[in-house]
Amino acid sequence: MVDLSFPLDLRFKTIAIARQISVEDASGRLLWYVKMKAFKLREAVVIFEDREQTRPVFEIQADRVIDIGANYEIRDAVTHAPVGTLHNMGVRSMWRSAYELVQGGQVIFKITEENPWTKVMDGFVRDIPILGLFAGYVLHPRYLATAGGGEPALRMRKESAFFEGRYSIERVAVSATPNERLLVLGLLMLALLEKDRG
Length: 198
Fold this sequence. Notes:
Strand content: 35-45%
Largest sheet: 12 strands, antiparallel, barrel
Structural class: alpha+beta
Strand order of the largest sheet: 1-2-3-4-5-6-7-8-9-10-11-12
Low-confidence stretches: none
Radius of gyration: 16 Å
Mean pLDDT: 84
Helix content: 10-25%
Order of helices and strands: EEEEEEEEEHHEEEH
Number of helices: 3
């Protein structure tokens, strides 16, 4: 099992038919290589241990075509055993992105966008010719994940980048939170979903 050494660095591959993310830890070591399957009506993601995509470790599958209110089931890629589910909060997340991470029928984490205006401005500026090139360098949406009792656990932030998507995940809690690996998997799926929304 891979140890998580924060902050984690997420980089979206710029030229690819399917969205792809490389996830590296604080030392620059590759933890996972994430690939969203192309030409699927429902989101389907495979997470590999290697950049060559020969060792799958997790799979994430949407339960419907439309994102609003969708559930994204996270499974072990080898045993197909359920690990958890990322739930889009539906209509409540139209203004401020909001997700729940569920395991065994219980909500163990909530993930919310910290400042929805940042995403609105990022989406607006991105569509303006020339000026849109700089949107990814100036505007940085952030998402805070809190544990069941409301204690902050992890924060994901869009980072400055030209010609690529880049996010970082940092630990906000003093020490590792139980189910932290599942939370990172949920944040990876959230990054794939939110990348084109600001």
